[in-house]
């Protein structure tokens, strides 16, 4: 199938697709689980957001200038920060500074590495490559980072006596927190490990499916999927590690005592 043979969806096709979501809302309402309104509101928000980003991307692709591309990446980063702030129940002291630095270094560094050395589009800011790839990397990284922060907070609370005992015996804060840091890092990576294990056997990933539907050769789609998964795993690991290495210090005072 060539790109010219792509089946374009008409508005009435989307209405048919929306029927599946209405079915989910109806089931939620029937069983009184209190999610029907959230589903409808979330779907409306999804449609408006996707339409807005669709028109924005069409304008950015036509402009082919680095400034709109960079601005789009900054907007994505800003929304990622707000999404993390909304999801986390336990926020670290200095949350916005720590998370901003981690996202910028982790997601930004891996995105540039991937785009400049692996895909290498010309020009380097080619928005058709840079923006979708950054979106996938950032989206997966904030999920991993949220898991890491939540797990670290839970471990620090559960292991308070153990950590204080280690400090009394002369351990540094970093040494006393080794096990919570390991468990938090493991929690961040676990979804990616499970995703890679099921990929191609249980599920076809969204990027690969989208490329195949658009007429791309399946083997080319597979190569892109392998490459982007490597980048995503690297970004999740780097972002989470930076977040944990900065975050654990906020649980201690300047005198290396555990904050109450």
From TrEMBL:
Protein's membrane topology: Multi-pass membrane protein
Single GO cellular component term: plasma membrane
Compartments in which it is found: Membrane
Name assigned to this protein: Iron export ABC transporter permease subunit FetB
Transmembrane regions: 6-27, 39-61, 67-86, 98-123, 129-149, 184-204, 224-245
Keyword Transmembrane helix: yes
Family of this protein: Belongs to the UPF0014 family.
Native species: Syntrophotalea acetylenivorans
UniProt cross-references to Pfam families, sorted A to Z: UPF0014
Source organism phylogeny: Bacteria, Pseudomonadati, Thermodesulfobacteriota, Desulfuromonadia, Desulfuromonadales
Assigned keywords, A-Z: Membrane, Transmembrane, Transmembrane helix
């Amino acid at each position: 199938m060539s790109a010219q043979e792509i089946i374009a969806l008409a508005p009435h096709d989307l209405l048919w697709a929306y029927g599946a979501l209405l079915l989910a809302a109806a089931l939620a309402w029937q069983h009184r689980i209190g999610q029907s309104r959230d589903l409808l509101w979330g779907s409306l928000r999804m449609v408006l957001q996707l339409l807005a980003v669709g028109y924005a991307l069409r304008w950015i692709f036509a402009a082919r200038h680095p400034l709109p591309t960079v601005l789009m990446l900054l907007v994505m980063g800003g929304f990622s920060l707000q999404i993390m702030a909304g999801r986390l129940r336990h926020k670290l002291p200095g949350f916005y500074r720590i998370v901003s630095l981690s996202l910028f270094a982790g997601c930004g560094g891996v995105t540039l590495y991937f785009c400049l050395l692996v895909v290498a589009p010309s020009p380097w800011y080619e928005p058709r490559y840079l923006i979708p790839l950054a979106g996938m990397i950032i989206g997966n990284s904030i999920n991993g980072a949220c898991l890491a922060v939540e797990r670290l907070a839970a471990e620090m609370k559960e292991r308070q006596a153990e950590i204080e005992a280690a400090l009394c015996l002369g351990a540094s804060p970093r040494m006393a927190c080794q096990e919570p840091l390991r468990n938090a890092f493991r929690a961040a990576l676990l979804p990616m490990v499970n995703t890679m294990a099921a990929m191609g056997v249980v599920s076809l990933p969204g990027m690969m499916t989208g490329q195949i539907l658009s007429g791309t050769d399946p083997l080319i789609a597979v190569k892109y999927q392998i490459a982007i998964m490597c980048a995503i795993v690297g970004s999740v690991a780097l972002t989470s590690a930076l977040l944990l290495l900065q975050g654990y210090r906020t649980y201690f005072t300047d005198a290396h005592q555990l904050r109450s």
